[in-house]
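Input record (Table S2, row 577):
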Amino acid sequence: MPDLEPRTGELLAGGAAPAASPHPLARDARRRWWRSAVIYQIYIRSFADGNGDGVGDIAGIRSRLGYLASLGIDALWINPWYPSPMKDAGYDVADLRGIDPRFGTLAEATAMIAEAHELGLRVLLDLVPNHLSSEHPWFQAALAAGHGSEERARFIFRPGRGTDGSEPPNDWQSTFGGPAWTRVTEPDGVPGDWYLHLFAPEQPDLDWSSPDVRAEFERTMRFWFDRGVDGFRIDVAHGLAKANGLPDVGSLTWPPTPGDPVEHPHWDLDGVHEIYRGWRALADSYADPRVFVAEAWVIGRPERLARYVRADELHTAFNFDFLFTPWLAADLRSTIDDAIAAHEAVGAAPTWVLSNHDVAREVSRYARPQGVRRLRHLSDLLDLPADFHLGMRRARAAALLMLALPGSAYVYQGEELGLPEVEDIPDELLRDPTWEQSGRKDRGRDGARVPLPWSGEQPPYGFSPAGATAAPWLPQPGSWRELSVEAQTGRVRSMLELYRAALRIRRRNPALGDGRLSWLPSPDGVLSFAREPHFTCIVNLGADPVPVPPASRMLLCSGALTSAAELPSDTAIWLER
Ligand code: NOJ
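Output record (1-deoxynojirimycin complex):
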């Protein structure tokens, strides 16, 4: 377990050798750290730009590791940084074991992992097993090799329907819009087979019944584990298995409407679990076990999600139900209860997620009327009235709720700054494939991916270094001056200082992280729960202020108490009893 040994410091920036002392990660080597961890998501192209080309990179991450360590998080998850034509922002991987030159080099990546470890931060990467880039040598070889070849057996090629094969093999739709099949021109120049892509046409799906595919991903995991990586977030973890015969979807929707059968021909099939059992054995073969988090969109079915985190499968799974639950006390309480119960049944710890690079940021979701419809993408928000002041109040309270719940939590970069969704990126600058594939109807996810503001009065707000040759790859709003790390640092009521305080408390309070929760009696519209020893969290989602229990000491509050020392609406408080 090389990454847990005391180090000589040869990879530290500046090269200074520290005095011999226990390695920062050694203290939790034998703990199941992932059950309590706060994991910070780095969307690399928007985090920090070290070389001034307007795109975030590894040099940028290295320059901000100190910021991340002092924020009080435990681990980083870095979105794909592999060589890629960037048709889907790096989720179209052309080389599973390399680094895209826009982000840096393998040597820089290895140094960054070591530096993060020195600071006590674990590092998770993104593994994208459902598909490759159409530029990957395997797909290029499959195109060249033609119908029925071994090269094509790694992907899902099928003849079309209709007398001349001009209809797609079935009715499956791409997640980004349009058919999930594209027809190829065969090496002899005639139209031939179709290949499946559940996402963009440049992301051909792999066939997980192929031994080549299985071997390639095992090799890839070992490659990164051997470079010190602590685990992987598994992209589209619910999509790797496809039903035999690729039957039509028909009228089935995903996620299924409550009461409908769960069976879907390409989501959440039983076949995925056997793959993960193999991966778990691989991860456990390391002396310091490596971990996985599943990105499995099985919304509204916590018991199905829990199947991914059974003892011999993945360690954790994103709990997207929490993210989608409206800011309503009864709904949140049942989401929390259901997640905890489903995870407890399989001995796993739940995770809590408020946002990521695929959904509209929570300040903007909470700014809208709650419970009207599921608020996922910007397109779900645009026609609803917005009160951003209210959205921010709720996002602050939600942060304290999330960080007090049992299990681990994810913080998406910029969440700690209270960044809103950018709702007015000009059409011609939109880069998410959803925009074009939906026939320019769905503005996609770019609004949650705008480069971070670090400092200064105007764009690029310290995202790129002085003298940068290019503007940030997406434009930053003028109002972000007040939301930069610099502007919020030391400002008592800023979101950043709230996160810093909450994470500081969470790290040293034995009641927080993994463990149990017990609900306390509370009026309608209020969530109140205890964590032992001596910790209480109260979240007021009702209209009226509520009293704070006497004989308790306030640890942290997401807003000011009323003049009568009561907890106002849309505010959360942490107490020591
Ligand atoms: C989920 C990723 O988070 C998303 O950004 C990507 O577009 C799809 N998977 C396809 O890889």
